[in-house]
């Protein structure tokens, strides 16, 4: 929502939901078309200067390419594909990607746990909104995963404030081991 007031955001939400089809689906092309009208509450969320928008689109394409690169890692004597770069927010609104081989596990693990926790919470909200059998089947495991991620994040924060020692982090996630420095 950023600097948008709640009332303005409700207008944006209403404009977008008005574009849903009978099945509840929405098409981004329809949103862009509706936003072309300068009086639309959606208009200000888009870049209308084509030269700027083209550059932003190319940046998005570059990010997509970067995210597609993978490496092969060995986990418990089995090769597995993993992302080659992870997205790190360098400063508000500016992302950069860093090689997973160069990112310290100590830096990466909290970021990944926060990302996972956000995904679990979003999924939980979707399941709750949908209701019915899906909610009853999925809510308990999603709540458990949410608590476990939050607990692990709390443990990592405690470790960061503790004096350096031999640290075995993420053993619950992937048996990552660090040697004493």
Task: Give an overview of the whole structure.
The protein is α+β, with helices and mostly antiparallel strands and 181 residues long. The chain has 3 domains: 1-46, no CATH class; 58-98, no CATH class; 104-162. Helix content is 55%, strand content 14%. It has helices at residues 6-17, 28-35, 50-68, 105-130, 132-161, 171-174; strands spanning 70-75, 78-83, 85-91, 94-99. A two-stranded antiparallel sheet has the order 1-2. It has a two-stranded antiparallel ribbon with strand order 3-4. A hairpin with a 2-residue loop joins strand 1 and strand 2. It is globular and about 55 Å long.
Mean pLDDT over the full residue set: 80
Which strand-content bin applies to the residues? 5-15%
How many individual helices?
A: 6
Global morphology: globular
List the helices and strands and how they pair.
Layout: H1 6-17, H2 28-35, H3 50-68, E1 70-75, E2 78-83, E3 85-91, E4 94-99, H4 105-130, H5 132-161, H6 171-174
Antiparallel strand pairs: 1-2, 3-4
Helix pairs in contact: 4-5
Gist of the model:
With 181 residues, the chain is of the alpha+beta class. It is 55% helix and 14% strand.
Q: Could you name the key traits of this structure?
A:
181 residues; alpha+beta; two-stranded antiparallel sheet; 6 helices; 14% strand; globular
């Amino acid at each position: 929502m950023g600097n948008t007031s709640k009332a303005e955001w409700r207008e944006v939400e209403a404009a977008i939901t008005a574009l849903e089809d009978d099945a509840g689906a929405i098409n981004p092309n329809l949103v862009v078309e509706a936003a072309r009208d300068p009086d639309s509450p959606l208009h200000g969320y888009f870049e209308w200067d084509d030269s700027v928008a083209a550059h932003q689109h190319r940046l998005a394409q570059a990010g997509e390419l970067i995210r597609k690169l993978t490496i092969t890692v060995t986990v418990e004597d089995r090769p597995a594909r993993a992302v080659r770069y992870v997205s790190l927010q360098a400063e508000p609104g500016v992302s950069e990607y860093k090689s997973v081989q160069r990112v310290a596990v100590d830096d990466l693990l909290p970021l990944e746990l926060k990302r996972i926790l956000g995904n679990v919470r979003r999924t939980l909200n979707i399941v709750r909104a949908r209701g019915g059998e899906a909610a009853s089947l999925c809510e308990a495991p999603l709540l458990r995963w949410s608590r476990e991620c939050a607990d692990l994040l709390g443990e990592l924060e405690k470790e960061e404030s503790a004096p350096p020692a031999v640290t075995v982090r993420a053993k619950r996630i992937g048996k990552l081991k660090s040697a004493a420095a």
